[in-house]
Amino acid sequence: MRASRVAASLYGARAAVCEMPFATVASDSLGGVGGTCVLRGCVPKKLLVYASKYSHEFEESRGFGWTYDTDPKHDWSTLMTNKNLELKRLVRVQTNMLKNSGVTIIEGRGKVVDPHTVSVDGKLYTAKNILIAVGGRPSMPDIPGIEHVIDSDAALDLTSRPEKIAVVGGGYIALEFAGIFNGLKSGVHVFIRQKKVLRGFYEEVRDFVADQMSLRGITFHTEETPQAVTKSDDGLLTLKTNKGSINGFSHVMFATGRKPNTKNLGLEEVGVKMDKHGAIVVDEFSRTSVDSIWAVGDVTNRVNLTPVALMEGGALVKTIFGNEPTKPDHSAVPSAVFSQPPIGQVGLTEEKAIEKYGDVDIYTSNFRPLRATLSGLPDRVYMKVIVCANTDKVIGVHMCGEDAPEIIQGIAIAVKAGLRKQNFDATVGVHPITAEELVTMRNPTRKVRRDAADKAKMKDEATSQKLEASAFTYALVSSFIFVVIVAGVKVMCRKIRAFRSHQISQATRIIIVCKGGLFGDSTTRVHHCSVVSQSSHIFIYNSVLVHH
User: Fold this and answer.
1) Are residues 14 and 84 located together in one domain of the fold?
2) How far apart are CA 500 and CA 32, in angstroms?
3) Of the residues 448, 465, 489, which one is the last residue of a structural domain?
4) What whole-number percentage of the chain has pLDDT above 90?
5) Which domain holds residue 249?
6) Is there a single domain that holds both residue 163 and residue 284?
7) What is the rounded CA–CA span in Å between residue 129 and residue 286?
8) Cis omega before residue 341 (within 30°)?
9) Same-domain status, 195 and 220
10) Non-local CB neighbours of 77 within 8 Å, separated by 6+ positions
11) Top-confidence residue, 186 or 479
12) Which of 104, 189, 467, 532 could cysteine-pair with 16, CB 3.0–4.6 Å?
């Protein structure tokens, strides 16, 4: 939408948008102007986050003197009705924005039939350039009983509140919905395949957010992979995993990732290259392998965020119509997870910062916010600031706690502008607020230095080389001792054969076991050094030397 509006309004281009009819839950024939974010992603999800937070605030209020004659009650149908009314309003707004910019709206499902032609329900439209911006869709595993499972689209449009729900997945979508249903007083169990939630995020926040959500009543099941879902006669669901089964769920939701929505678009037939996940491969200017076809947003699987797609679309328009080749800038992109508590981050993680800069200073703070002192609830806030030690530049800020997304948007400006830690330190804080902590962390929690790490690595390598040399020497000495032992055994055997008057029966065995300082521990010595003689046969086990 952004690309077409800007192309038409600023550059006078003839632009058209192909979109399917509106529906709150998408399908192969239904969608709506505004796409995933507006209709079945960011916006409706955030509305449900707002709704779910009130229960926590009711609990907080008791410590501030509020009392209730009866517990507050929530009406699910009111929430869904008002949410859908807002979505319809947004569709009208988005549609009017396109029309007012001079963009033609073509309703229906489009398919690319050649580098310059799109077929919409059988009608052909030609254009000099084609932009693919179809986003992604939920990805579901192929397991028995998958027909009983809902995805994130359906979870936003349920007719009733789940009594007890299993949320399968450990990513941001899973955590956001777990917080929503927990706040709306559903029983929530989260099943993840890994040991921790939010793979790819920094370690501290993974532990912190899981602990905080657990304190609010969410049950986490780690290292559990779903294998099947069954439905009983009473309509309740059972989730079977590699560790067992849990029953009694009214709903089972899979939030196991999203995949590019490239199926049945005709892209393969016209030569558009895609990766193994179905994402469209583009160059640094968002051009595909077909010169006249471009792609932006989640369908390219670069940085899958709505504001990033808007930025990519703006850069694309400059490249095509403004005679100003512009690459999308994916650096210092802020993002948020609307879990409860929420997460905000911008810039590099500690691991990436060390990899890129080597020497970094880490500032962290884990504290109880003022609000929690009277509420009596176990709410806490975690903050982390990452600084390049050589330049003093702030290269990453991460936060988990109330208002983290709102705070991180302002901090993102500072990180994008390349401000230094001394600029943060020179800024007067607003007191008393949570964000004040970001300008009052004076002393680093720890310092990471590449030289120290390299020295440690070199020391380890030197030690390893010494051990290898010792092992080689050991092997030579051991081989020599083997030869001596075998020679001794040969002599002994000859003497035995010669000693006819005291002949030893064939059932007798002569066993020689090396002991004492040849091969590591005693178990290994026996295993490698036993020589067994039966009659005239001598075997040295686990050795290349065998004598008959």
Assistant:
1) yes
2) 103
3) 448
4) 79
5) 146-256
6) no
7) 12
8) yes
9) yes
10) 159
11) 186
12) 104
Residue 423, token pair as written in the block: 């600029």
What are the tokens at 545?
């030397």
Give the model's confidence band at 454: pLDDT under 50 very low, under 70 low, under 90 confident, else very high: low
| Domain assignment of residue 539, yes or no | yes
Q: Is residue 290 part of a domain?
A: yes
Whether 431 is a known active-site residue: answer yes
Convert the pLDDT of each residue in 308-354 to its tens digit: 999 999 999 999 999 999 999 999 999 999 999 999 999 999 999 99
**CA proximity to 175, closest of 220, 141, 138, 142:** 220
Rounded distance between C-alpha atoms, residue 437 and residue 385, angstroms: 11
The catalytically annotated residue of 148, 221, 277, 431 is: 431
Average pLDDT on 170-196 reads 98
Query: Do 295 and 311 fall within a single domain?
Result: yes
Strands (E), 368-477: 381-388, 394-400, 446-448
- List CB contacts of 438: < 8 A, sequence separation 6 or more: 383, 385, 397, 407, 411, 424
**Do 437 and 363 fall within a single domain?**
yes
Q: Are both 12 and 99 inside the same structural domain?
A: yes
Read off the pLDDT band of 544 (50, 70, 90): very low
In angstroms, the CA 483 to CA 433 distance is 79
In the numeric block, the tokens 């009594």 are attached to: 163
pLDDT of residue 548: 35
Residue 61 lies in a domain: yes
Q: Which of 497, 377, 411 is nearest to 60 (CA)?
A: 377
| Average pLDDT along the chain | 87
* 267 and 127 assigned to the same domain: yes
pLDDT at site 215: 98
Query: How far from chain centre, in Å, is Cα 459?
Result: 34
pLDDT of 13 > 90? The answer is yes
* CATH code for position 364: 3.30.390.30
